[in-house]
């Protein structure tokens, strides 16, 4: 039986009468409707880096599993010794990590002990070797030592059965260290979300072929495939679909084998907008006109139960909408929960006057702690994407920005890039 979840047929439907959807409303709607669809599998914990947890994880053992020495030195029973300086006979043998002392240390004696070694019975205190003097088979300990010093209690870091991670966490290399230390051998994780990517448009040159006079290279697909890989997803390259209903439908049928589909172009309501037409005929089209610049049209729907995100065809708008809208939705489908990008407030290094009605995302980068923006806001200026290292986000309302004014900066690394 498949454990793949399905979305509701009307998951993208907006309230009737909505013409222009504010950015925050669009994001809120996606957050409410997206459910994990990526399948679940069990992996050895050491092989789960980059995977999203499908279930909470609890510790299988204490860490450390026994009380141990924090330094190289000499151990003894501090409770049995009087305060002040001590002169204790040194017993033969030692305690080392991986080679415990066999037996019980009698009160009033000392034992050589190394960092990480389990404290044997009869030892509750360790003094640093640099603080003692060895003389005629005895350990001379100056006054000022403290009972329990230089020891690490059992379970000081993590207790057995303590919660470690919640479902939805993407496991990192340090997390694998904690899983190993806490005795977790295997974890339930989501398989990488399989996202199919399709370009549409007869104006696109065939892959590998030089563009003809009326054609342009496909800039969107390699960009989107790279974004998906950066987000830990498994991209499926559907190539290019011709501007025909049959060609688009055939490509979408192939994409339905994946968990989600990203398309570029054909997302509006023109004669050649076949993505929108295909979704409309399937009865699941939700054409969102989002009050955002660059961007605006998003064609959303389901094809054979698989969610489709129809991005604008312009590369700048496709990139922006992929980061702002598709990324959090895809992460939710992948089981990673809703992860909004976190921005910072920095002074502007530019001046701009903005009209009311649309959220704007300006291609930007930080230099000397100030946000500078690309020289042109033209959505056809693909070079601005390579120039930029983030966005300056301007709110929906009208306003003006002068050099030195605080603005919200969203570095691309906040989007997992």
SSE topology:
Elements: H1 23-33, E1 40-44, E2 52-53, E3 57-58, E4 68-69, E5 73-76, E6 86-95, E7 110-113, E8 125-128, E9 133-135, E10 138-141, E11 151-152, E12 163-165, H2 173-181, E13 186-190, E14 194-200, H3 220-230, E15 234-241, H4 245-255, E16 260-264, H5 274-282, E17 286-289, E18 292-293, E19 297-303, E20 306-311, H6 315-333, E21 344-347, E22 352-354, E23 359-367, E24 370-373, H7 383-387, E25 390-394, E26 399-401, E27 406-411
Helix pairs in contact: 1-6
Structure description:
The protein has 4 domains: 23-39 and 191-333, MoaB/Mog-like domain (Molybdenum Cofactor Biosythetic Enzyme, Chain A, 3-Layer(aba) Sandwich), CATH 3.40.980.10; 42-63 and 156-190, Molybdopterin biosynthesis moea protein, domain 2; 68-152, Molybdopterin biosynthesis moea protein, domain 3 (Molybdopterin biosynthesis moeA protein, domain 3, Beta Complex), CATH 2.170.190; 344-415, Beta-clip (Beta Barrel). The longest helix is centred in the last third of the chain and has 19 residues, at 315-333. 18% of the residues lie in helices and 29% in strands. The mean pLDDT is 90. It has a 6-stranded mixed β-sheet, with no helix packed on it. A 6-stranded mixed β-sheet has the order 15-14-16-20-19-17, sandwiched between helices. Strands 18, 21, 23, 24, 25 and 27 form a 6-stranded mixed β-sheet that branches. Helix 1 (23-33) runs parallel beside helix 6 (315-333). With 417 residues, it is an alpha+beta fold. Strand 9 (133-135) and strand 10 (138-141) form a beta hairpin. The chain has helices at residues 23-33, 173-181, 220-230, 245-255, 274-282, 315-333, 383-387, and strands spanning 40-44, 52-53, 57-58, 68-69, 73-76, 86-95, 110-113, 125-128, 133-135, 138-141, 151-152, 163-165, 186-190, 194-200, 234-241, 260-264, 286-289, 292-293, 297-303, 306-311, 344-347, 352-354, 359-367, 370-373, 390-394, 399-401, 406-411.
């Amino acid at each position: 039986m498949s454990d793949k979840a399905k979305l509701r047929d009307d998951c993208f439907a907006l309230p009737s009468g909505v013409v222009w959807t504010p950015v925050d409303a669009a994001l809120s709607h996606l957050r409410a409707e997206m459910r994990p669809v990526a399948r679940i599998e069990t992996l050895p914990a050491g092989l789960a880096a980059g995977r999203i947890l499908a279930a909470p994880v609890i510790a299988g053992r204490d860490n450390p599993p026994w009380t141990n020495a924090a330094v190289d030195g000499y151990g003894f029973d501090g409770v049995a010794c009087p305060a002040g300086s001590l002169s204790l006979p040194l017993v033969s043998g030692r305690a080392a990590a991986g080679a415990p002392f066999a037996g019980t240390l009698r009160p009033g004696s000392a034992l050589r002990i190394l960092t990480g070694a389990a404290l044997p019975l009869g030892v509750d205190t360790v003094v640093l070797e640099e603080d003692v003097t060895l003389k005629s088979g005895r350990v001379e300990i100056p006054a000022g030592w403290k009972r329990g010093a230089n020891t690490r209690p059992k379970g000081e870091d993590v207790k057995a059965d303590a919660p470690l991670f919640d479902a939805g966490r993407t496991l990192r290399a340090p997390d694998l260290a904690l899983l190993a230390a806490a005795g977790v051998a295997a974890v339930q994780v989501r398989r990488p979300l399989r996202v199919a990517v399709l370009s549409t448009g007869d104006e696109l040159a065939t892959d590998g072929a030089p563009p003809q006079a009326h054609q342009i290279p496909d800039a969107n697909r390699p960009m989107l495939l790279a974004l998906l890989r950066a987000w830990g997803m498994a991209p499926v390259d559907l190539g290019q679909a011709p501007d025909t209903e049959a060609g688009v439908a055939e490509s979408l049928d192939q994409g339905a084998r994946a968990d989600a589909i990203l398309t570029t172009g054909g997302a509006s309501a023109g004669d050649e907008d076949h993505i929108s037409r295909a979704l409309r005929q399937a009865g699941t089209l939700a054409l969102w006109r989002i009050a955002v610049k660059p961007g605006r049209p998003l064609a959303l729907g389901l094809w054979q139960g698989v969610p489709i995100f129809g991005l604008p065809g312009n590369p700048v708008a496709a990139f922006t909408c992929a980061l702002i809208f598709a990324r959090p939705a895809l992460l939710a489908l992948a089981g990673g929960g809703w992860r909004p990008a976190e921005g910072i407030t920095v002074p502007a290094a530019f001046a701009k006057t903005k009209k009311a009605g649309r959220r704007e995302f300006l291609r930007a980068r930080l230099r000397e702690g100030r946000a500078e923006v690309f020289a042109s806001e033209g959505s056809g200026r693909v070079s601005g994407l390579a120039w930029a290292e983030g966005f300056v986000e301007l709110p929906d309302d009208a306003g003006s920005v002068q050099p030195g004014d605080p603005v919200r900066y969203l570095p691309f690394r906040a989007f997992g890039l």
